[in-house]
Amino acid sequence: MKIAVVTDSTAYLTKEQVEKYNIRVVPIPFVIDDQVYNEGVDITTEEFYDKLRTCQKFPSTTQPPVGELIELYNSLADEGYDTVISIHLAGTISGFIRTLQTTVKDAVSDRINLIPYDSKITVLLMGYLAIEAAKLTQEGKDLDTILARLNQLRTTIKEFFVVDDLQNLVRGGRLSNASAFIGSVLKIKPLLTFDDESDKIVAFEKVRSSKRALKRVEELFDERIQGIDYPLRLIVIHANDEAAALAWREKLAKKYPDYPIDISYFGPVIGTHLGEKALALAWMEDIYR
């Protein structure tokens, strides 16, 4: 069995990671002022946030064309792969995984065994799932072993987001309990997470000021890691505010010296919904230990 690994651009993997682990990346399209861009291909993240500040219409995201997806999986079959694990952003925030499970899977079934895998998350957390799958394929592990490991690794993922306001999430329909948090007063910072039961993005607290919000996230992290008996890797994720992310990482590194802490970012597709200046603390089992 020869297994390929595919993910999408919201994994925000580096070029070096993609090449090292031979991961294929599907660009997710987004639209600003009627112009369609492919994430990671047609526009840089910095250019996106510049446009986000001045756009006339609320930006939106869409799914990759089905024909291009079919072409990708058929090309993998041409390369000798008989199976592909395709790891993508949560089905609760995008219909992409459902499209793979239905239309695309059937269309390529005579060429390759397509396994759509819902990461139930996105960003670099999903990227690390893809890297782990790729590492295991390189080690010659079988499909059942790889999927079991992904399922186990996925249970170790958790994250908390701090956003400036909820307008992008509310207008984009990505916040499941929006009515309880609309109309927040100035300087209130909503805290969000992917709900453990529904896998939907939920707002669960309002905190006054960014400083207090980050402190509250650290408190929640302390609570969540009690009793964990495996090594953790932390990720500080920012929406076009690297300086704030680096400052937070420096503080976290002093507080949690035993944990490696990566810096990552919210690219255009996720930034469309979270808005500029969002920050997040995420963590999962460390795949490098």
From TrEMBL:
Keyword field: Lipid-binding
Signal sequence residues: none
Record bears the keyword Phosphoprotein: no
Pfam families cross-referenced by the UniProt entry: DegV
Entry's transmembrane regions: none
Classification via NCBIfam families: DegV
Protein's name according to its UniProt entry: EDD domain protein, DegV family
